[in-house]
Amino acid sequence: MRTTRTVPARPVLIVALSLATAGLPLLTPHTAGADPKPVTREGAAVDDRAARAPESAARRALTAETSTGPATTTRGYPRRQVLSPDPHNPGDKSLKLGLTPYHAIAPKLNALQRLGDRVSVEVTGRSAGGHRLYLVTVTAPETTRQARAQERMRELIENAPASAAKSREIKHTYKAPVFVNNNIHGNEWEGTDASLKVIERLAKAKDAGTRELLAHSRLYFNITANPDGRVAGTRANANGFDLNRDFVTASQPETRAMRQIQLDKQPAVLLDLHGYVNGTLIEPATPPHGENYEYDLFLKNSYANALGMESAVNALGYTPAKDGVEPVQIPFRDQEEGWDDWPPIFTPQYAAFHGTVAAHTVEIPLAVNNEEYDTLPVPELRRRSAVNTAVAGAAVRATLNHVREHRTALVADQIEAFRRGSAGAPQVPVSPRTVPGVPGIGPEDVYTTDFPRAYVIPPGDSRTQRSSPAAARLVDHLLANDVRVSRATRPFRLAGRTYPKGAYVVDLHQPKRGMANVLLADGRDISDKVSVMYDISGWSLGRLWGATVERVTSGSLRGAPLRPVTEAAPVAHVPAHGTLRLRLTDPREIAALNSLLRQGVPVRQAPDGSAIVPASARRKALTAARTHDVSFTATRLKGDTPLHRLRVAAAVTPGELFALREMGFDVTPVSTAVLNAGFDWSGTDVLFVSAGLDHASLTARARKALDAFLDDHGLVGRGATGAALNAAADLLAVKPVEGNPDANGVVRTVNSGRLTHDAPAHSFVYAPLWFTDLGPGVREEQSYAIGNPLVSGHWRPLGDGTGGPAAAAGQASVVSGGRTVLFGTEPLFRDHPKGEFPQVARALFTVAHSGSDEESG
């Protein structure tokens, strides 16, 4: 567990906030110093859990669409629907805590809709495990005409912010959107129950404050963002994904549903209700702060709302002596580091790029999950859950109070955030002058970036202007994140360079420039800024997704022949004649190959690693091209190695399992426990190991069976676990060297082998590893670049000076030999670095098809 260092670093500003609405008295925030107990991070640095997600859940996650989206016809409120009940599930983990089981939610929502004309329910999609996702809207009734007016104003705020800033209609009649996200971690339950109680109170309340709030706001409640985990009592969804780490990639249907809510509703304020930190932790966060959003607007509003929530929670009267509840903590004020808001993978930080100017993770206080769930008496668990529900409810009510009192300012600041992006205006660094009323702002809080003028994504084939699968996927992903993209209708010049027809252009003069830049930019090496980070510190779709992305710092796009696009141009193409060649440099191409192999197509591998498909399979190739949006070319190459369908046994993380299945591999999850229970190796061609398999913990029988399999079949290993199995089985003669386990980020690499042919010159690392003392027959497929290989992220040497990027520079990051390949990088991390996926696919095919230890593969 990584632990933050708690220090009373920032003075506390005592501000009186009116909390009169909903019967709350006028209160002064409690002057809480640092929590005497250190704040601990969630989870271990390295994910060593073996994935167990069923293929059906992965398939649903890959294909599920969310129903939330821009409506063709805007309807008024309420929008009632009767929800069919779910089967009673006595195994729902919520029941033990006295909380609402998932099967009781639909009946509760039906009952809430019947209370009056303020509550509406929509189904925004289904989880990876097939559960419905519910969005509840609470607002004063609107006619269809009024709802259309609200939508028109919402679009004006984003698309014409300079005009919106002057609009009297928006100032007086626009309903401020508020988003309360609950239960994104399935075993952090109580936000759901708190929100259901708040919704019921809002539905029935007759006081003037509630009427005023609902007349000038729309309140959106995502009842349970992770129903799979709620039922199972797990942090992750049915695919094993932590949804609060998935916003950059949006691999899971639950994440895509939350993303669409934020795009469609455009919340000015957001709460993400979590657990468990004692005392209750309420963001804003410690440095480093996300450098791509308008942090001055974000900090001002988030801090003010945090003070109101602090007052409301402390006013509940819970004490350490009586209830075991510590006073509220606000990390920006009470902590030095360790609860940063740097990466856009968390809900509040992602929301900031869509116009949210007050966003908070709220960690309620008393743990009821994990070992507490299994060991504490039921009465104590239910007492804790009741306290947590009350705390979450107080935070929600205080936020609604803040919105009622400060609606005009919140909307104005949202407009200003969009205006700066549209105009290409400079960011405003935080300081006591620019953010008055927020205490303790220092140079450690100043993070801004230099936005380029544009990004250009050239087509993969300059002759045909046909984009590569990587470029098309990246463009579609940008569009899904509400980033505006154009395409050149003819060649054009920008900043002294000519770009071809078909090139995509991302103009950074757009309302959500921060979203565009945070996805495409290299990022920053922040190793010298803080000693520890809460989670990943580097990410870059521009470097890791396989497309060429060029940063253009200056120039004018006026008069450029650009046409806005709503989707990437199709890539699919199959020549009319001849043998076909399929490059294997993208996960879509790997998926297309696997679809052909499943149909028995006789595919061979060329010396350059590409797949050669006979002309007789043209019809099947055409179907694969259209299904996976890939392009085949004509070739005279014959190919030297026959390829066949692979059956992969995988002791890997959930993200890696998902990525393997995304590429179309037939995968059976295994682990130490599975092998000890007796695993039939006869249906397996290759083993991939990165987590959850310990050779020393196997029974003698399981160890003998594994060793026998490895004598005749291939091993692909990743990280320390893969390297340990390699050593135990005495396969590749290498010395693995573990870097700092807290390190992560984007690194420069040098590709020198067949497995990494045509791979991007960048990789992702998390607890990096490298290999020295390479023995006879061991080949270096890839190495870390010389100098400082870290491009963006956080990678420091250990206390003794070892384990840093300087030690890794020039060392092998991927090695191979015989039937074994070892990775020191994280090419499938959380289903994210798409451009790295083919390295693993090639490794699997190479070791599975190696006829002897002498074959080069």
Automatic annotation (TrEMBL):
The annotated regions of Basic and acidic residues compositional bias extend over 38-52
Q: What domain of life does the native source organism fall in?
A: Bacteria
Catalytic residues (positions): E371 (proton donor/acceptor)
Q: Where is this chain compositionally biased, Low complexity type?
A: 53-74
Domain Peptidase M14, by residue range, is 98-399
Tell me which Gene3D superfamilies the record gives.
Answer: Zn peptidases
Please give one Gene Ontology molecular function term for this protein.
carboxypeptidase activity
Keyword annotations: Carboxypeptidase, Hydrolase, Metalloprotease, Protease, Signal, Zinc
Amino-acid biosynthesis as UniProt keyword:
no
Which cofactor does the UniProt annotation name? Zn(2+)
Which region ranges are annotated with the description Disordered?
A: 27-92, 423-443
Signal peptide positions are: 1-34
Q: Which family does it belong to?
A: Belongs to the peptidase M14 family.
By what name is this protein known?
M14 family zinc carboxypeptidase
Source species of the chain? Streptomyces violaceus (Streptomyces venezuelae)
